Amino acid sequence: MSETAGWGTLDVGTIPQATVRTGVTVPLRFADGYTTTARVLTFNGLVDGREHLALGLGDWERAVRTTPLVRPHSECLTGDVFGSQRCDCGPQLREAVERIAEPGGLLLYLRQEGRGIGLYAKLDAYALQDAGLDTYEANVALGRGEDERDYTAAAQMLLALGAARIRLLSNNPDKAAQLEARGVQVTERIPTGVHLSAANLRYLATKATHTAHTLDLPGL
User: Fold this and answer.
1) Which residues touch 31 (CB under 8 Å, ≥6 apart)?
2) The pTM is what?
3) Which residues carry out catalysis?
4) Among the listed residues 184, 204, 185, the one whose alpha carbon sits nearest the alpha carbon of residue 194
5) Which residues share a beta bridge with 148?
6) Tens-digit pLDDT profile for residues 49-106
7) Residues marked as binding?
8) Is 202 helix (H, G, I), strand (E, B) or coil?
């Protein structure tokens, strides 16, 4: 669980306002041939200074006036780009884009590699997992938190776009808790599919048992 999870509801006025910096239209094509178009939005004033993106999919501008479907997706170079099967990130990203585009909504692409510890540290954690530790134990063994992600910037992005009420596409209860604490009302939490492989079974099972991710896995 993130070190910031479990906070009570914050005074939204304590969260600095972000503003939309740039919006550009980008046609997307995935390896399986699925295509769609995204409005890719950048921001000024994000609290962590990172270059997070919001992808407006489908009729997203109409959707944000009601209750858009939103997925905060943490960057995963190995899974999103190289198709690593040690996690489920790449398939989740592909699934989320199509599911959000249909009703209209937002995908937040958050620069939080390795649950916030960075790419090199994530690969160091993989080496420790190969030696027997689970995904959370490995982070701790490196002197890092189990999950260092903070969703303040995600809340800033949503509020800057007028999305104060959302339906959240996520298996992770910490995302809902943190967004709620930062002034974004989560009216519904919708699980993603289960993208299981021989290489990620232990990883997914640990997420389900250790941090209550909504995953319907065999034997659990």
Assistant:
1) 83
2) 0.86
3) 147, 149
4) 204
5) none
6) 999 999 999 999 999 999 999 999 999 999 999 999 888 899 999 999 999 999 999 9
7) 71-76, 87, 89, 92, 113-115, 135, 170, 175
8) helix
